[in-house]
Amino acid sequence: MTSSATGPTPAGAYDDDARISSDRVVITRAWAMLSPYQARLWVSLALILVASAAGLVQPRIIQFSIDRGLVEGHLDELNLWALAYVATLVIGWLASYWQTWLLSWVGQRILFTLRTRMFDHLQKLSLRYYDRERIGHIISRNTSDVSAVNEVLTQGLLQSIADAFTLVGTVALMLTMSVRLTLVTMIVLPVMYFLARWFATGSRPAYRRIRQSVSAVNAMLAENIVGMRLVQAFRREDRNFDEFDVINKENVRAQKDAIFFHAGVMPILDLVDAGVTGLLLYVGGHWILGGDAPELSIGVLTAFMLYSARFFEPMRDLAARWDQVQAALAAGERIFHLLDLEPDVKERPGANPMPAINGVVRFEEVTFGYDPARPILNGVSLEAKPGERIALVGRTGAGKSTIIRLVMRFYDVQSGRVTIDGIDVRDVTQRSLRSQMGLVLQEPFLFAGTIRENIAFGRPEFLETPEGQRAIREAAEVVGLREFIETLPRAWDAPVEERGGNLSGGQRQLISLARAFLASPRILILDEATSSVDTETEAAIQSALDKVLAGRTAFIIAHRLSTVKQASRILVIDGGTIVEQGTHDELLARGGYYFRLYTLGFAPGGEEAEPVTMAGAS
What we know:
Elements: H1 23-32, H2 38-71, H3 75-124, H4 127-132, H5 135-177, H6 179-186, H7 189-226, H8 228-233, H9 237-290, H10 298-340, E1 361-368, E2 377-384, E3 389-393, H11 400-407, E4 415-420, E5 423-424, H12 430-434, E6 437-440, E7 449-450, H13 451-455, H14 466-478, H15 482-486, E8 495-496, H16 505-518, E9 523-527, H17 535-548, E10 553-557, H18 561-565, E11 569-574, E12 577-582, H19 584-590, H20 593-599
Parallel strand pairs: 3-10, 3-11, 6-9, 9-10
Antiparallel strand pairs: 1-2, 1-4, 4-5, 7-8, 11-12
């Protein structure tokens, strides 16, 4: 648990429902992602058009087979047209196969590129974003939202062009066969127009709700999986199930609203298609039998009815694909909203790499608040020199963790400045600054992998050389971990489960210390690193700290007396200011705020204080 409170982010800063100005902006930005693959897309489009053209000539071939083969009794010509029909099938299959392969390749590249962009951008966002955004929302954007956009950009877009080509080609061929029958077919166009307007207007809000509800489901799921120990410990299974059920039902309602529009469109299209086919059969049959249309024949009428079915087929496909378009637009809004977020902590123009530091840290009248209207620190000034252990003490929310976050420049001060060796931390690149710092948290985070990989987390290049491997072993030995590691079945390559679930708290903490030592930081920060371990493990960690901290500037947040006693200087924080500072003995002798903390047991969960008197503090 951190010791400083975090205020609210300004409303709407990370609003999950925030919208981009218009669908046109989303489409334009999504289309720009296809530009590196234009050559393959043009080839795919050509193949799609070839496949569509092969399908378009098939009813015409059937017409000639009937009129010139069957009706006139020319067997040779019938065989010729049959072979032509088979040839169109083969050509259509080959074109479809290769365009599917090409589009799948492009789709995978877009998935790779978009997810890489998002992952890279997420790593650049400041911690303020992660303080406010739920994990499931972030994961949803990088998985289901990306897939929805990709599906439309590849398959959906070019298939829609092919459908439009088929639609125009069908109408053109119908006009060459019979203008009057074509006009009979076209009487349904007003119905189709109003149907499309109804579907587009009504379905968009439903699809936006779907993306939001899916994100909420993912967020709730991720939160419960991560916190499953607490869920079971506090017997929250039933309550959490009820909360998840509410969110999941909202997702179902959103899906149902979208299905209402989708389910309404398809039957209407099928009904219109069947009605037009019946009307063509009735009108065309009467014209043929009555001799009112010399251009019509049985073959022409048959081909025309086939073309009529193909006239509605692309409309049916476009209506079905409209689902994808609506889902992709909603997903695209969320993706581009994320990509448009700017980190709160930015590099200044012309920022230089931080030179090798000695470790002199100064705060000069620093004021800062997570919410600017509610400052956590007020005019704080302090100095830490190489070799000093600075202990930060105070009640929860006093601002201790805020100080170390400002040292590492996870946030920027509102006034005053933080300097290292006289250089303002805002004048150097963040990467070069943090590369010379180490951080050990109260709850050390270990990644799934091996013990060796977790120790080398800050220096992955050490995994690739014999010298690096020796350095990893030396770092483990310094913190007293080597003997334990070498007793494991796979020693240094022993598996570590996610978050170090197969290791004890003390073992995780020692690995975290070895990781910090291997990174060779000049400034080391320990955020309550011993508060959650037993006394014996704490003694091992304290012994390791004596070696790790030698010659380094150290900031230590601690609630345990044993940790604070060994500090070179103790800074007592209260109300966002440093109210006292000095050594343990000096502060006890003053009988001030630190003395009161000490006599009350120092901190919740800390060890009991020794009996002292003002005169005999020791």
